[in-house]
Design brief:
119 residues, 4 helices, alpha/beta, Hypothetical Protein Ychn, Chain: A, five-stranded parallel sheet
Amino acid sequence: MTKKFLFVLRKPAYSGLYVQEMLDIILTTAAFEQPVSVLFLDEGVFHLKAHQCAENSGYKNAGTLFSMLPTMDVEALFVETESLLSHGISQKNLTLPVTVLPRDALAPFMAAFDVVFSG
């Protein structure tokens, strides 16, 4: 039985193993041919910001990690408009194509999924 999965990433890039663990779960879910979408909220928008410098963080470059998503059939990527604006990031400064959603559209958007992982 196929279920629609939504992964919500709220924490900033390089904030611990959380990102790498969530990415593992996302890729594992996609490998089992389940429809996977990813929503970047709050400081989670930094995962897609171009020109990241990860050398001193002790973690892999988040932009490089997330660039793998389309190769694993995870192409439904969403970003909240207000999160981009509050962090001064424009859509053209993101490493992957995304669909931008306003905050007031998030509740009905999220309700359309069978499983929502958020952290």
